[in-house]
C-alpha cells in the first residue's frame, strides 16, 4: 500500500514539475526596487494574477504551473509595463532595463523576443521621424513640404511592420503567438492616437483602410487551429458583422474589437519600464 501511495505521490510531483514555469528577472530601473510586480494573464475577459513578487536589488522571480502556453504581462501595481511573456514550462529569463527589454529561455519566448525587439524598433522609427519633422520646422523649412516628405518615410515603416506581422503570424498559426500577434496588430492600429500628432490622422486612416484586406488575407491562409481560437472567432465574427454594416447588408450590432491580451496600445512607441515607473530617461 505504501509503495502504491509513494508511486502516486511521485507521479503527481513529476507532473507538477513537468508543467512548472520559473521566471528569473533582472532590472536596472532604480524606481522598481522595493516595488511589487504582478504576472497577469487573461481569463474569461478579465485579468487574473498568476504570481507576484517584490523587486529586491534589481532581482525578481515568478513561479507557478501551467496547463498550456499562454501570454502574460508584467504589471507594477496596476500599471502595465507593456512587456509580454509566454508562460510555458521551463526556465524563463526576463530583463527590464532602461534601454532594453528581453525575454528568453524557452522556445516560444525566444521567438517572442525576436519579434518584440523588431516591433519596438519600428515603433521607435515613428518617434525618430517626429523628431526630424520638429527639427526641420525649427530650421525654417516649409511645414507642408516637410510633412509630405516624412509621411512617405512613415509609410515605409508601416510597410515593414505589415511584413513583420504577416510573417510572424503565419509562422505561428498553431501556437499561442499567432493569435496574440494578430490581435496585437488590430489593437495598435485601431487606436486613434497611436502616432505622433502631425502624422496621426493620415497614418490612422491608412491603417484603417489597409486592415480589412489584411484580415481577410490572414484568415484565408490560417489553419483550423488559428481559426478556432476563441478570441479569433469572436473578433472575426464582429469584423464580418462590421463589414456587412458598412456595405448596408446588416443593421448595426454595436460590435467591439477585442484588445490583444494585456496590451494598452496608446503610444507612438512602447514605454520602457523606467518610464512606466517614473524614472526620467535622457533624450
Characterization of the model:
The chain is α+β, with helices and mostly antiparallel strands and 283 residues long. The protein folds into two domains: 2-106, Immunoglobulin-like; 108-277. The protein is 50% helix and 21% strand. The chain is built from eight helices and eight strands; from the N terminus they run H-E-E-E-E-E-E-E-E-H-H-H-H-H-H-H. A hairpin with a 4-residue loop joins strand 7 (90-96) and strand 8. Helix 3 runs antiparallel to helix 4. InterPro entries: DUF4369. This is DUF4369 domain-containing protein. It holds the Pfam family DUF4369.
Strand order of the largest sheet: 4-1-7-8
What is the total domain count?
2
Unreliably modeled segments: 7-16, 264-283
- Multimeric state of these chains? single chain
List SSEs in N-to-C order.
Answer: HEEEEEEEEHHHHHHH
Overall shape: globular
| Percent helix range | 40-55%
Q: What proportion strand? A: 15-25%
Q: Could you report the average pLDDT, rounded to the nearest whole number? A: 85
Please outline the major beta sheet.
Answer: 4 strands, mixed
Radius of gyration: 22 Å
Work out the helix count. 8
Class by helix and strand content?
alpha+beta
Number of strands: 8
Query: How far is the N terminus from the C terminus?
Result: 69 Å
